[in-house]
Fold this protein.
Amino acid sequence: MLADDPVALLDGRLDVLGAPSSGTGNTVEDLLSDVLDTVLGLMAADTAAVLLLDPSGRFLVAAAARGLEAEVRQGARVALGTGFAGRVAAQRRSIVVDEVSPSTVVNPVLIAAGVRALVGVPLLAGPELLGVLHVGARGERRFDDADAALLQAAADRVAPALRIRARQADRVAAQALHRSLWPAALPAVPGLDLAARYVPAGAGGASGDWYDVLTVPTGAVWLVMGDVAGHGLPAAVAMGRLRSALRAYALETDDPAELLRRLDRQVRHFDPGVMATVLCAVVDPSCGRMSLSSAGHPPPVVTVGSGPAATVEVPADLPLGVGGERPRRTASLLLTRGATVCLYTDGLVERRGRSLDDGLGILRRTLRSGPAEEVCAAVMAALVGDVAADDDIAVLVARRTPGGARPEDLVLDAPATPPSLQPLRQATRMWLADARVDRRRAADVLLAVGEALANAVEHAYGPRRGGVALRMRAEESGIVAEVRDTGRWRAPRGQRRGRGLTLLDALSDEVRIDRTDDGTTVVLRWNVPDRSGR
Amino acid sequence: MTTATVTPLGTADGVCTLAVAGEVDLANAAEVEDRILDHTANDLVGVVLDLDGLDYLDSTGLRLLFTLAARLEISQIGLELVVTAGSPVRRALEITGMTRMVSLRPPGEPGPT
């Protein structure tokens, strides 16, 4: 039965919950669970439930319940203004129902649970509606205004803590989402030396800045720098969608303006209200041709070899998500060997007490041709220094590797499956161009390496899964390719097989196949007496 | 992903010409074979595969060609390949002895009538 002074008792019980990081646990769910147990006991009720306003602000969704667990399991949703909870939310005041029936309640779970009387109150944190708290009774118990006041007192105690925890959860989710969407490591791209930095704004939240580097089957490499307007979880979610859509379109077109046109249409249709600036560039690392298009994004800065850096002249077309279909334009430039290009978000060049033009000037004076990691570090030192950023900063530096020197080893790992073959060959093709191997020899190397890779895929593992590793190395005396798997080759099977080894023999100057218990390594060698002259 | 296209260029005097372009390896050889066979009707006298647009052909692709040649031989349908002299595909065909099994001619040269 009811305690003598329920409000005082409530205070005692809920003060613990009121503190943002106390209670039995730290999550929204822990808090709600504590609240429901408390009101259930204090009010001698049979059921209790919390419905929270969803991000659209138009629906209440069951978040926690006692005696009505099905409500949560079924993901009950009530539109604002309809049903019992919907009316409580829309009117922002307590409502008491003495006889539960389909005319007063829309949720069949309440009726099925045999609830006959209800009292519900809004969960308000200041002017902000968070949701609805209601309790119900199955038997003869009816609720009156005093019950409503008690429940409202409980709701008012809990709402601020609920809001703080929900925001913490959002911030953690935004950061986790953001982290998961950033490239864990930049892809190894033969012919390009890449480095990147991302620094979140001082507040430590996550926003909608992103960069991406993607290789596509044609051998082209897309460099992307984008900035979704806004902060927090909504911006991070919008950024995630944009990034995925952009990746899909990058497989379908080789024209940055066309890609941005499609992306813009996608944003305006599926994510109205989202606005983003994006700079999209596509590079052919073998010849250095770069095409780029800008959706309202600051232009990249480029330096060719020793000369001073310059801002790339990219026509500034509209950001994504604003206006209708307008033609988008593509600019192009040639990245000569050693040329270095820097893509960035406005957080790098713009800051309090410094104009964008001044920032750009510093960037142009700082950018030089050199190893991408060093250039990236120099750019961050010159433009950020030790001042905490007031906006997110993303920087991507790409240098076309200088000619003459021997290329770095190409080291790749892939699952030993047929779809891996084409990308591995593509990387090999790029590396051979970088190593300046002449065309005819390059074709031989490509086919022999492709054969060795296909052998590993076809013969090494059987139905078991495994990987295949490729290493290409340029030496003084020639080129060495190593294809390694950790399986045991079985004998060729089926009719008309065994041509792969014939090809390996005929195409290379030396073939060695090392079979051990740990796997098989195919080592292929080509003697190239003098590559520098070609 | 490895991609290849098989395009019928027309049939004249019972000889069907198909252009195979792109790349053929383990990932798509079966699919390419199916598409070639789709265009290989039983009443044909000969099949010409124009491989001029083919950038990559490994032993899986060669196996496809050998199998196809053998099948067509049983059906008494001739097979001819169009490949540029000195191209990587031609080289792979030569190394594996394909040239002894089917006739090859460079693009632009009319076939035997």
Notes: Chain A has 14 helices and 22 strands. The first strand of chain A starts at residue 47 and ends at 53. Residues 145-181 of chain A form the longest helix (37 residues). Residues 305 and 427 of chain A are 25 Å apart (CA to CA).
